[in-house]
Amino acid sequence: MKGDRVEIVIDAGSGTTRTYDIRATRAGRKVGITQSRGVVEVSETTRGGSTIRTARFLSNRVLALVEHPASDNPVADEILPALRSV
In the chain, which end has fewer C-beta atoms inside a 10 angstrom radius, N or C? Predict the structure, then answer.
């Protein structure tokens, strides 16, 4: 859903951190998180399941992973017109 986002904070070494923000940029897209074999993968996908973009991080470097779901109120792009019966 447009407005979904995931915020990732990683250890960049030497006591510094970096923050990355992955967002669902269009209506009908969502952001998903996968963790396997020491890698955290955050990807934006379409309704059909096609991956648009992917960010990969080493699990031992991830300090925080925060999901920010979209609001329950749909954006104008996501409102489908009601079918009228004649």
Answer: C
